Amino acid sequence: MSEVFHIESLDLEARGIARRDGKVVFVEGALPGEKVLAGITRRKSSFDVARAEKVLVPSSQRAKPLCPSFGLCGGCAMQHLEPAAQVAIKQRVLEDALAHIGKVAPACILPPLHGPTWGYRHRARLSVRYVNKKGTALVGFRERRGSYVADMKECLVLPPHVSAMLVPLRALIGALSDPRSIPQIEVAVGDATTALLLRHMAPLTPADIDLLKTFGQEHGVSWWLQPKGPETVRPLRDEDAETLSYLLPEFGLRMPYRPTDFTQVNQAINRTLISRALSLLGIEPDDRVADLFCGLGNFTLPLATRTRAVVGIEGSKPLVDRAHDAARQNGLGERTSFAVLNLFEVDVQWLRDLGYFDRVLIDPPREGAEAVARALAALAPRERPKRIVYVSCNPATLARDAGILVNEGGYRMQAAGAINMFPHTGHVESIAVFE
């Protein structure tokens, strides 16, 4: 039976939050401030889930989704909400996490970082499934709350030239000798080339290779192959091994990478983020700076153009090797040094042994940087870096680590703000600065 719900707020899966007799009800397809008619689809002891059937009083921030697959495809959750409102919700999520988890509040809120809301996704992992009943392969993201591949013919968050390949990729996969052995295609869009990484569970035939080469020529892409684990990744053509890269024009840098390497999905936001991070660090020409979880050197190399010495530390040796090579290729070898280390298992003595740093930049994965935060908090006042900038992809772990730095380490949380790295999704990136 359908009921009327008044929507109070929104969760990060873009479900409206309502209450009925004190019980939380998550209403799919509803927005804050709306009055909707919805039917319960799932009942739990502590909450219910419903689906909006009719919007009786719409929100002024409701938008018409542009993608025909919205609602079916699991790639986006917020296309029905104006982009500015999406950012406001993410900012509120960040502030709530800091207050409730870390028990901290920034002295000021940074303006959110905005960028393109369509065609921004320069990295993607596309699922592939050959469907016998359809007699074709599906290529795209998985369905929302499901394991099936969405039957999508375009994707508006992918660059237009990649979106235009989705249907031709179906035909290509269907023409291979064993289309059922292809589980995924990874997309990496560089500034000069687009790479497609084909994961194949069975050997490719010479005819398969010819099909890939023809497709690459027609669509201007370079193919990479992965028959087994990550160590087996290689370009189909040897001459494509060094062509994938992104540029950081403000710093005069070219950053080479491989399709399997971690790079930011949204390159426009990445460039703005680097500029903001360096500005917030307040680096001086004579500073010695640490870049923890440095990856390919996305922050390390720009930092090295502004100061005398930067130490990049990362747990992945292949990434460190590429960061070292990139520093050398960009003429920054003398200002940079790199080390391979598991930063989830460090302590204060390790940090002391590295020597004094004037500034520290931290850019961890979703697990955060608890061990690093505890090491920094345990330093004596005279040993502490003057400023720390923390770039986060998980507001919960940022909040936890901020609580350690502030409540145990004597730091002041000067500022924090949201970064809309993934428009139309519930993914929240943020940046915070500590003094």
Written description of the protein model:
- With 435 residues, the protein is α/β, with parallel strands linked by helices.
- It folds into 3 domains: 2-62, Nucleic acid-binding proteins (OB fold (Dihydrolipoamide Acetyltransferase, E2P)); 87-116 and 266-434, Vaccinia Virus protein VP39 (Rossmann fold); 123-189 and 194-240, OB fold (Dihydrolipoamide Acetyltransferase, E2P) (Beta Barrel), CATH 2.40.50.1070.
- The chain is 25% helix and 28% strand.
- It has helices spanning 83-102, 160-163, 166-175, 206-219, 267-281, 300-304, 317-329, 348-353, 370-378, 395-407; strands at residues 2-6, 9-10, 15-20, 23-28, 35-43, 47-57, 108-109, 123-131, 136-140, 184-189, 194-199, 221-226, 234-235, 245-248, 253-256, 288-292, 309-314, 336-340, 359-362, 387-392, 413-419, 429-434.
- The strands form 4 sheets. The protein has an 8-stranded mixed β-sheet, with helices on both faces.
- Helix 9 packs parallel to helix 10 (395-407).
- The chain is flat.
- The model has no long low-confidence stretch (mean pLDDT 95).
